[in-house]
Design goal:
The complex is a heterodimer of chains A (258) and B (293).
Chain A lengths: L7 H12 L15 E5 L7 E7 L2 E12 L10 E8 L14 H16 L9 E3 L3 E13 L4 H14 L2 E2 L9 E2 L7 E8 L2 E4 L3 H6 L2 E7 L5 E7 L6 H24 L1
Helix pairs in contact in A: 2-3
Chain B lengths: L13 H5 L26 E5 L7 E7 L2 E12 L12 E8 L14 H15 L10 E11 L4 H15 L9 E8 L2 E4 L3 H6 L2 E8 L4 E11 L1 H39 L30
Parallel strand pairs in B: 4-5
Antiparallel strand pairs in B: 1-2, 2-3, 3-5, 6-7, 6-8, 8-9
Helix pairs in contact in B: 3-5
Classes of the chains: A alpha+beta (258), B alpha+beta (293).
């Protein structure tokens, strides 16, 4: 990816706004963009969702297939997450093998779902040691206007929540994927001394540091990932966790009811 | 986070799983862990600076059963050219695990896990190195895990920090890294491999000890807010001790170098001007220059 040229005017503008308690798009610091979720968007996927977080647009498909379990978890289904940052989504995305950014994105989304035990993988066993259901979560960024981490993780959760295990393939009846937890990631970006939630692209470009916190329905922390060059104080990390718990609650409702 | 409670399996072998009985207690009633440590006890950490000849800076760390080498090259011209930043140096880390460093052989080359670790370590150093002083260059950090027992990213980052100092790279401070997690329901410092695989959470972090800034933070598993606070407290306290071990490694390296310099006779001074032999006479008739070809 070529080094991005950021307008110094834009940087100054956003910094000045932040210092006076405002954001360019009029949101409050702890206010995410509007979340729109369309489940079952793709017929050929066992589960899918198109998610718009403001102008960031992500399509997530879940394919479920029969495969072999890992030897150390012989009676558990398998989860595998990947992300593609396709060139149509941004002038800065390039075709080719997954970039470190795409890998990090997929792994952070994966961590949130895996560590919160969103899916009860023990209910995905067909024959212990031989056959289990394997879930492939594929994240497709369509239009990138910042904060892919959250958009992708809302997309993944939405797609899982409407996914069906295609048991008819093995002569049984299809059944809904056994979901047990609802992890929600909320990403905060640090701009100067201000911390904003759900940064849009302009904010993300000038941000010093980023912190993604995934909390479950009890408010417990399930995954975290700090990114970008800057740093956070312990106080700021505490604040980001509390924001994630609070913002997560309302977003969880939207995804649940979509 | 080495094997993670789940992924990647490649670093977790069957015998590791089978030697752990189902009802295993990672920490017993009196608060003693499998390897005899208490919840707030760090594994032994030993660091040696300047262990490689060719690298601009290097360090070796033994952290419990982890053995990790770190080397630094640069600042040098950034390659490929299009990555160059006209305003600052790039800090590029490559974290790599040797195929024999884990129980089940790891396929050589970068996997998704090491790409992610390389990225977060690069970002952790970017705020500490005075990158503005070296535009268009790259400071390359190589971390090679020779023997792994959970906590290799922390060990690697801690060693890389010493290697950066050994290379004379201007920095605001060293970076010190440590992890805490949760085992058998107890928040504990510095998980080893069994504890990481069978525990409930792992939370590696890195800090700039002088300012308290957190430059790396990851977490996976299950922690309440209070447990997270406790884990950070353990890590931050441990980081103070590790910081001293880092500084001590640098002190030893450079006091040893200074002592050696004092013992050895100084190198002979360069020859004075009059002693320099005159250049050999040029031939009287140089061949005529060929102008017309």
């Amino acid at each position: 990816m070529t080094a991005e040229v950021i307008s110094e005017l834009l940087r100054e503008h956003i910094n000045r706004l932040a210092a006076s308690g405002k954001r360019a798009d009029g949101r409050a610091f702890d206010e995410p963009r509007e979340l729109v979720v369309q489940k079952n968007y793709i017929k050929n996927a066992e589960g899918s969702a198109r998610v718009q977080l403001g102008n960031t647009d992500v399509l997530v498909g879940v394919k479920i297939d029969v495969g072999e379990p890992y030897p150390d978890t012989p009676n558990q289904g398998v989860l595998s997450t990947s992300a593609e940052l396709i060139p149509m989504a941004s002038p800065n995305f390039e075709a080719g093998p997954p970039s470190p950014t795409a890998i990090e994105l997929a792994r952070v989304v994966d961590r949130g779902i895996r560590e919160s035990k969103t899916v009860n993988t023990e209910k995905l066993c067909i024959t212990p040691k031989e056959k289990v259901w394997i879930m492939f979560i594929d994240i497709h960024a369509l239009d990138y206007d910042g904060n892919l981490f959250d958009a992708a993780s809302y997309g993944a959760l939405s797609a899982l929540s409407c996914a069906k295990v295609p048991a008819s393939k093995i002569g049984k009846e299809d059944y809904p994927l056994p979901l047990e937890h609802w992890p929600i990631s909320v990403t905060s970006a640090k701009i100067g001394r201000t911390i904003v939630v759900d940064p849009n692209l302009d904010e993300e470009r000038i941000a010093d540091a980023r912190l993604t916190v995934t909390t479950d329905e009890n408010g417990d922390v399930r995954a975290m990932q700090k990114g970008l060059r800057g740093s956070f104080s312990l106080e700021e990390v505490r604040g980001a966790i509390q924001t994630s718990q609070r913002v997560g609650r309302s977003l969880r409702g939207i995804i649940n009811q979509a | 986070m080495e094997g993670g409670r789940g992924r990647p399996r490649s670093v977790m072998a069957m015998e590791d799983i089978e030697h752990i009985p189902k009802e295993l207690k990672l920490i017993d009633e009196s608060g003693i862990r499998l390897d005899g440590r208490r919840f707030d006890e760090l594994r032994p950490v030993r660091i040696e600076a300047g262990v490689l000849k060719k690298a601009d800076g290097s360090a070796y760390i033994e952290w419990g059963n982890n053995k990790v080498l770190a080397a630094v090259y640069g600042p040098r011209e950034a390659h490929p050219r299009h990555l160059q930043d006209p305003a600052r140096a790039l800090v590029q880390c490559r974290y790599n695990m040797a195929p024999f460093s884990v129980t089940d052989r790891k396929r050589p080359g970068p996997d998704r896990r090491s790409v992610e670790i390389s990225k977060v370590i690069s970002e952790a150093f970017a705020s500490v190195v005075f990158v503005e002083q070296f535009p268009r260059t790259s400071v390359d950090i190589f971390i090679e895990v020779l023997q792994a027992d959970a906590g290799t990213r922390c060990a690697g980052l801690t060693a890389a920090s010493v290697a950066l100092a050994d290379a004379g790279i201007p920095m605001r401070d060293l970076v010190t890294s440590c992890a805490s997690g949760k085992i058998g329901g107890v928040v504990a410092l510095d998980l080893n491999k069994d504890e990481d695989n069978f525990g409930e959470a792992d939370c590696p972090m890195a800090i700039v000890p002088r300012t308290g800034e957190i430059v790396l933070l990851q977490m996976d598993g299950h922690l309440t807010f209070e447990e997270f606070e406790k884990a950070m407290e353990l890590s931050i306290n441990a980081a103070k001790n590790i910081y001293e071990i880092q500084r001590d490694a640098l002190r030893r390296r450079y006091s040893a170098a200074a002592e050696q310099a004092a013992r050895e006779p100084p190198p002979p001074p360069p020859p004075r001007a009059e002693e320099v032999p005159p250049p050999p006479d040029l031939p009287e008739d140089l061949p005529p220059e060929v102008d017309d070809l």
